[in-house]
Amino acid sequence: MTVKKMAKKKKVIENPMENEAAAIQQPITETLEKNYMPYAMSVIVSRAIPEIDGFKPSHRKLLYTMYKMGLLNGQKTKSANIVGQTMRLNPHGDSSIYETMVRLTRGHEALLHPFIDSKGSFGKQYSRDMAYAASRYTEAKLDPICHELFSGIDKNSVDFVPNYDNTTEEPTLLPTTFPNILVSPNLGIAVGMACSICSFNLAEICDGAIALLKNPNTTVERMLDIVKAPDFPGGAQIIYDREQMKRIYETGTGSFKMRAKYEYVKTDNCIDILEIPYSSSIESIMKKATDMIKTGKLREVSDVRDAIDLNGFKLTFDLKKDANPDLVMQKLFTLTELENNFDCNFNILVEGTPMQLGIREILTEWIKFRSKCVRRELNYDLEKKLSKLELLEGLMKILVDIDEAIRIIRNTKKEADVVPNLSTAFGLTTNQAEYIADIKLRNINREYIINRGKEVESLVADIKEIKETLRDELKLKALIISTLQEVKKKYGKPRKTEIVEREEVHEKPKEDIFFENYNCRIIMTRGGYFKKLSVQSVRAADEQKLKEGDYVIYKEDTDNRGEMFFFTDKGQIYRAKVADFDLCKSSQMGDYIPTTLSMDDDEHVVSCKMLYELNPEHKMVYIFENGKGVRVSLGVYEAKSRRRKISGAFSSVSALAGAVYEGDKPVNIFIRSDAGRGMLIKSSLIPEKNTRTAAGVQIMKLPKKGVKVDLVTDRIEDVGQDALKCKKLALPSTGSPLGQLTFNF
Q1: Residues of the chain with CATH 3.30.1360.40
Q2: Where in the chain is the domain with CATH 2.120.10.90?
Q3: 185/343 Cα distance (integer angstroms)
């Protein structure tokens, strides 16, 4: 080795990090382009997204293998045998191939028109946990509808490509005679895109394709009238919104709502769920329902059980006595997968390119695909018939002198000269001469040749018809239409999924659905604490826990249906349903209302009242700290929307001392000032005002500045019998001195 070469080698060895850094430097975009993009495209094109024939490669390889095995007309064979044969085309594990096969079977119930006639346990589409049997136990063959998948496949209707190891060939597409892409549901997740194609009724889709073949300008509105809505093998109901469905038909994206079908069995007091949405599973429904029963959200149900039997799907909810089945179903629809959305994303591959298309565009692309298949079939038939016609025309030529033909064949010394000699003698082509030379001796007679000659007329007519069909686009379309009509007649079925107009679905508000009524006692304290007590809690302990110095200003035995109105010292009313509050015990303080209802800073509850409705004929009486009072009709608080907070509910010129409810008749109101004077009056003495913010009129004369009304109550029993001594019949009044009058607060 020369010194120069040794020096160069030494230099390389001395800087190994430099060389390594130079070797691994690569822009991230280049890395993605070279390494990630081929993988992404492979998943999109060769795995997850269906082609225009409605199949992913795994489905197509499996069905074609079964076709080549003779399972279209033959007897069933073990699934393990099918899986093993499919591995010649699909280089994946046997378990993934078998899972693909399971979904296509009649037993799995995932397709409106299954492609595989199965025997054995194949699980169910509506169950996550119902396992399918091993492939060695089950049997299968192709369903009769597969005749429509492979029609023309042996007539060069589609392209074939070598399989992964070049030992055989497989079709790139199947020449389906109907738009299977919209008849079979398809879900797939690729890289950067996904597809979710719902299934449609075969008869409706055939009609839609026929309408588009007859009039390429068929509108989406017209298509909606023909292809009414998706149709699923599991049935159930679609809550139909035409505008929503129109968007899906136009764009290929969107969602629609589905709900289960059920019946109430009065004799057993139970609800039987007979069909559930396609995207729901029985396990998730049962788990959610069981959790609701345990937590008390579904008190009307005593048990939920899987009642699936040989008759099909059934999920049973056993009801308690006096339970309302409609209300129970409203709860279940709201909180479980008995009502579910199906999200549509019509991504398909068209000539290897992913596209998001609407229904009309998908049918248009299928018509283009089907037209190509039919043209290729017709060209194949034309070539065969032309070839046969050529041979028969040659046969007719020897009819002139059969004996001469036999003599030529007999006297020709070399076998290789037979064909040329026949060609020369009768003016035949090489193919014609070969055909005549290969005829058996017993068939070289006038009767045989004349009978074969009769076929010529029929062949000429067929060839003429094929050529006219290939030239005339209308005739080609008519041929496709006739095929679609035959498919519809042979395989069409009534809709399984019921269409229910959105206007026909009467849904109750959530607060009504989850409302539970029971008797209770409500208590409000001056300090702002609110309690809702159960009947059992009231019976167990009559003494309430209160903060030191606090006392009860409102107490009523009622039920859970009412609504609480809280009147504050800021001229505002806060509303809350009694049902919004949790039950508490007598030993608890209760809910602090200013915090619970998010009141303003330094805002306090002065009074409260429980009401079932805002009756305009009933009144609220407000007494303010400045001694003024006013009566206001409850009708002034009516509004189109239920507001949680009513601002400017009454006058804020002076702070509110108390609010008293006046129903059908006047009530007694006791008013006290901090100067030690009190008065008992009828509420009817106080003038009524039409404006809710009216300041009112003077009710109690206050002797000097700084004195204020500090107590207003209609609970005369808590004031005591001495309150009757303070009764006044005219207003305003200074009230009576209270002296030693005590209060039971």
Answers
A1: 261-337
A2: 613-745
A3: 12
Among 195-199, 290-294, 724-728, the range with the most confident prediction by mean pLDDT is 195-199
In the three-class reduction of DSSP (H, G, I as helix; E, B as strand; rest coil), residue 517 is classed as coil
In tens, the pLDDT along 214-260 reads 999 999 999 999 999 999 999 999 999 999 999 999 999 999 999 99
- The residues of the chain that CATH labels 1.10.268.10 are 374-491
Q: Where in the chain do CATH 3.90.199.10 domains reside?
A: 49-176
What is the architecture, at CATH level 2, of domain 49-176?
A: Alpha-Beta Complex (3.90)
- ∠ at Cα 291 (290, 295), nearest 5°? 120
Q: Around 311, how many Cα atoms within 13 Å sit in the side-chain half-sphere?
A: 5
Q: Would residue 280 be called left, alpha or beta, if left means φ above 0 and alpha means ψ between -120 and 50 degrees?
A: beta
Q: What is the 3-state secondary structure (H, E, C) of 390-419?
A: HHHHHHHHHHHCHHHHHHHHHHCCCHHHHH
CA dihedral 314, 318, 323, 329 (to 10 degrees): -30
Encoded tokens for 325: 């089945």
CATH number of 374-491: 1.10.268.10
Taking a C-beta distance cutoff of 8 angstroms, is the pair 629, 686 a contact?
Answer: yes
Instruction: Examine residue 144 and say whether the peptide bond preceding it is cis (omega within 30 degrees of 0).
Output: no
Phi then psi for residue 530, to 5 deg, are -120, 135
What single-letter amino acid sits at 480? I
Pair of tokens at residue 25: 């430097």
Question: Which helix (H) or strand (E) element contains residue 240?
Answer: strand 237-240
Assign 439 a pLDDT band (cuts: 50, 70, 90). Answer: confident
Helices and strands, number each (H, E), in the chain: 24, 34
Residue 683 has what DSSP assignment? G
Rounded to whole angstroms, how far apart are CA atoms 155 and 380? 6
User: Which pTM does this prediction carry?
Assistant: 0.73
The CATH classification number of 613-745 equals 2.120.10.90
What DSSP character marks residue 733? B
Question: Which class does domain 261-337 fall in?
Answer: alpha beta
Provide the annotated active-site residues: 137
Residue 148 pLDDT more than 90? yes
Give the β-pairing of 315-319 and 301-306. antiparallel
Residue ranges of E strands in 109-152: 116-119, 139-142
Q: How far apart are CA 568 and CA 602, in angstroms?
A: 10
User: Which residues, at least 6 apart from 157, have a Cβ–Cβ distance to it below 8 Å?
Assistant: 175, 373, 374, 376, 377, 380
Dihedral, CA of residue 428, residue 467, residue 453 and residue 418, to nearest 10: 20
Instruction: Report which of 225, 223, 199, 198 is spatially closest to residue 213, judged by C-alpha positions.
Output: 223
CA angle 37, 43, 48 (to 5 degrees): 150
